[in-house]
Amino acid sequence: MARYDFRLQRLFVRASLREGGEIEPTREQANYLLNVLRMGDGDRLLVFDGAHGEWLATVRPTGRRDCRLVLVECVRPQTAPGDVDWLFAPLKHARLDYMVQKAVEMGVARIRPVITRHTQVSRINLERMEANVIEAAEQCGVISVPPIAEPVDLERLLDAWEATDPGRRLLYCDEHEETSNPLDVLRDLERGPLAVLIGPEGGFSREERAVLRSKAFVTAIPLGPRILRADTAAVAALAVVQATLGDW
Questions:
Q1: Are 113 and 178 in contact, with CB atoms under 8 Å apart?
Q2: Which of the four, 159, 200, 211, 241, has the lowest number of CB atoms within 10 Å?
Q3: What distance in Å separates the CA atoms of residue 212 and residue 135, rounded to the nearest whole number?
Q4: CB neighbours (10 Å) of residue 185?
Q5: What is d(CA 135, CA 163) in angstroms, rounded to the nearest whole number?
Q6: In 10 A of CB 160, how many CB atoms?
Q7: Which strand (E) or helix (H) includes residue 243?
Q8: What is the rounded CA–CA span in Å between residue 143 and residue 48?
Q9: Tens of pLDDT, residue by residue, the chain (248 residues)
């Protein structure tokens, strides 16, 4: 990823960015810029929409709590996202927020909640999840914002995999692997589209592990000799996969 100016405020906008254009931020965004950050006429910031790169813009206030953003120039062209999908059994509240933010920082292409037998969360707040995606992207210079898929049952996911994700290998973290070193497994895999699946706090059930291991497109990987919490496992798995087979 290209370097960017850490000194400038970054803002994700739902608008198509083009040279010479003007965009209207949401009321909440405008209030934040004008009354929290105390930005005034002509102050600069960076804006991105996840599709048309990152743009330098200036603030033009139109009221106490309203403004428009005038696009000056594209400072970073849009980059293609990586090709690692992140699948996970949702956790509760703050730990799920943490997992989502870290996954975005580490360059996942898509975020896909998966319901397993031991998943502890019955209701998933996709709006809160999206807010965490945007916050992480704004703070960390990410311009390819990963979309969030609707939750899907693990069995249905696996049954439809070869039709919906042909050629994409699914790596799942399994503490029962014979080796404890994930590199022993990853070194033998060919580069290509990947997905990483993180299980729930209680782990996958015996039946789920049997189904996963029966699929030709699935590879089990360990995460070392220690038992990790699900949110820690997500960061560890994405780090080792990106470093070995991803875009690092």
A1: no
A2: 159
A3: 33
A4: 17
A5: 33
A6: 11
A7: helix 230-245
A8: 6
A9: 345 566 899 999 999 898 889 999 999 999 999 999 999 999 999 999 999 999 999 999 998 889 999 999 999 999 888 899 999 999 988 899 999 999 999 999 999 999 999 998 878 999 999 999 999 999 999 999 999 999 999 999 999 999 999 999 999 998 766 678 899 889 889 889 999 999 998 889 999 999 999 999 999 998 888 888 899 999 999 999 999 988 87
